[in-house]
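Quick one, tokens below:
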């Protein structure tokens, strides 16, 4: 078999193995995101806080706009800790074509604070009984992309085959040059 045929066969083999390992369904997991929030107007202007939320991606299709229930929500504001159990309305992560865009959560006690109901990344708040204690803010979701395990394995496999192919070509080249010296 000529070197070209071997190279084509090896390339086809590597491509096929990468495709086969790359199309396996991913395992369902609880995905957690961090968010940073800042209240920009009203009585709490300048207040900053952070939090986390999570959801189960086994319900996710990756197609179109999806609303999936939050598994957790945690943040602390003005010394008060809030969790998913405090949510009065909402409590969903909004996913568009597989990418997390926003989440919704409205909490009504001890004061009212709502994430995502005024639009993507918008916070609204007020203190019941105090007309002057209301305002708005913003939050940003910290998105981290994690490579799929199949991509890591497939890439490693392709690099390994490439290294072996390079060794084989080097050995073949050395063998051919030795053969040419004997002929001349």
């Amino acid at each position: 078999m000529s070197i070209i045929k071997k190279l084509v066969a090896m390339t086809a083999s590597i491509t096929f193995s990468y495709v086969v390992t790359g199309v396996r369904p991913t395992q369902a997991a609880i995905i957690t995101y961090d968010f940073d929030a800042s209240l920009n107007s009203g009585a709490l202007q300048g207040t900053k806080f952070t939090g986390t939320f999570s959801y189960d991606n086994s319900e996710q299709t990756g197609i179109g706009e999806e609303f999936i229930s939050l598994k957790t929500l945690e943040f602390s504001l003005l010394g008060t800790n809030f969790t998913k159990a405090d949510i009065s309305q909402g409590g969903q992560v909004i996913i568009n074509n597989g990418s997390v865009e926003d989440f919704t959560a409205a909490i009504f006690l001890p004061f009212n604070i709502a994430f995502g109901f005024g639009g993507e990344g918008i916070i609204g708040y007020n203190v019941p009984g105090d007309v002057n204690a209301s305002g708005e803010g913003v939050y940003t979701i910290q998105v981290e992309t994690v490579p799929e395990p199949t991509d890591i394995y497939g890439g490693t496999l392709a690099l390994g085959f490439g290294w072996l192919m390079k060794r084989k070509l080097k050995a073949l080249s050395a063998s051919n040059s030795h053969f040419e010296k004997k002929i001349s």
